[in-house]
């Protein structure tokens, strides 16, 4: 008996302090209209966002807001009412989904992008949410959206992709297809399983202030643990229950954030529809096509790009912030090396890619690529996928 008391006392002592605090985060409300959701998000962000530059607060709020894009009523008058619900990933914001959302809007689809709880404000807010809050947000948005469109597709980037796949597998009669960009089915680490245990002892491995108004520079350990649990749950759910739901998946074999090998396994074992497609970007493999898989080589020396990063897959080179000539360059690999960080940000002849020895041989301060030179081709293939799989019943 005494041992049990000691054990539970230790558990209480190990529990993070934040667990006992009240949560002041933006959460979903079941059945809420999207316009009400947007208005509530705007009010919350105005008072809770940590500014990079307070004088740019209007732009910074706009960047992280959930949003909806409607197709052109004249050009798309003859098109069926197809809705696409998208979610961003861990540490990101709806800004990361702007490029694919705009491309889908131009293809005559109605697009909604949600804001996951704990995001868009300050990284410490991720201490007050977990994977169930993210699930609730995606489910609430999808349940409302499917009542307003003829056909619903769900999708997302990274963690958002895992949420979309899980929703589709739980609601196969409601979802016509799934669109995944760099989906999270396993964190790319051999010790990711330690994160839930470590979260009892430690809130942060590092905690850098962000100079990027659209995403966080650091992720707390409990949020990494939530992502680990979500990825494991979704991976097992899908593999244990293969479905004929059409899936479009685009990912990089060189991804240092998610394990692309596991994603490929999930696609092969769980996403069994003959209409499912996987686009695999690889700096080592040559271009190749099979019935369900296309491989694109990403060794592009003319553009000083060696491999696509986790976040680059769905990035438009024309994006004025993250694009090829954008205002912001991703140099977070060097946050502890100020000289390399500044060189990475300013070198006009720098190389770009996903972190690897081969890339760093090109430049000791290479930047993380945040755009896909073949973005237009990618989104054309997404549109073709929707056209080929839409079912008006």
From TrEMBL:
<feature type="domain" description="Serine aminopeptidase S33">
    <location>
        <begin position="79"/>
        <end position="201"/>
    </location>
</feature>
<dbReference type="InterPro" id="IPR051044">
    <property type="entry name" value="MAG_DAG_Lipase"/>
</dbReference>
<feature type="signal peptide">
    <location>
        <begin position="1"/>
        <end position="19"/>
    </location>
</feature>
<dbReference type="InterPro" id="IPR029058">
    <property type="entry name" value="AB_hydrolase_fold"/>
</dbReference>
<dbReference type="Pfam" id="PF12146">
    <property type="entry name" value="Hydrolase_4"/>
</dbReference>
<dbReference type="InterPro" id="IPR022742">
    <property type="entry name" value="Hydrolase_4"/>
</dbReference>
<keyword id="KW-0732">Signal</keyword>
<protein>
    <submittedName>
        <fullName>Esterase/lipase</fullName>
    </submittedName>
</protein>
């Amino acid at each position: 008996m005494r041992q049990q008391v000691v054990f539970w006392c230790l558990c209480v002592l190990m529990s993070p302090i934040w667990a006992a605090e009240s949560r002041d985060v933006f959460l979903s409300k079941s059945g809420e209209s999207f316009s009400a959701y947007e208005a509530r998000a705007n009010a919350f962000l105005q008072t809770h966002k940590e500014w990079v530059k307070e004088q740019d607060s209007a732009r910074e709020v706009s960047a992280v807001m959930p949003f909806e894009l409607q197709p052109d009523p004249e050009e798309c008058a003859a098109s069926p009412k197809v809705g696409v619900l998208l979610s961003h990933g861990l540490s990101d914001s709806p800004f990361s989904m702007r490029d694919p959302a705009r491309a889908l809007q131009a293809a005559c689809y109605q697009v909604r992008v949600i804001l996951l709880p704990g995001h868009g404000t300050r990284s410490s807010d991720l201490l007050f949410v977990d994977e169930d809050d993210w699930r609730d947000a995606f489910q609430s948005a999808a349940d409302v959206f499917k009542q307003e469109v003829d056909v619903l597709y769900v999708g997302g980037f990274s963690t958002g992709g895992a949420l979309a796949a899980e929703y589709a597998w739980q609601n196969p009669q409601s979802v016509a297809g799934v669109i995944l960009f760099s989906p999270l089915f396993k964190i790319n680490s051999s010790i990711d399983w330690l994160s839930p245990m470590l979260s009892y002892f430690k809130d942060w491995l590092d905690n850098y202030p962000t100079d990027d108004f659209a995403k966080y520079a650091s992720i707390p350990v409990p949020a990494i643990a939530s992502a680990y649990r979500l990825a494991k749950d979704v991976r097992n759910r899908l593999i244990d229950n293969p479905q004929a739901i059409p899936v479009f998946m685009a990912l990089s074999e060189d991804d240092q954030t998610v394990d692309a090998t596991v994603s490929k396994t999930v696609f092969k074992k769980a996403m069994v529809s003959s209409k499912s497609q996987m686009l695999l970007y690889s700096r080592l493999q040559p271009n190749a096509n099979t019935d369900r898989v296309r491989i694109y080589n990403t060794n592009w020396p003319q553009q000083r790009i060696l491999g696509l990063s986790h976040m680059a897959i769905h990035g438009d080179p024309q994006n004025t912030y993250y694009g090829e000539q954008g205002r912001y360059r991703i140099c977070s690999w060097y946050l502890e090396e100020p000289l390399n960080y500044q060189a990475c940000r300013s070198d006009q002849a720098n190389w770009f890619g996903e972190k690897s020895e081969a890339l760093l041989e090109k430049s000791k301060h290479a930047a993380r690529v945040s755009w896909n030179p073949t973005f237009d081709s990618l989104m054309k293939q997404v549109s073709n996928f929707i056209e080929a799989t839409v079912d008006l019943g």
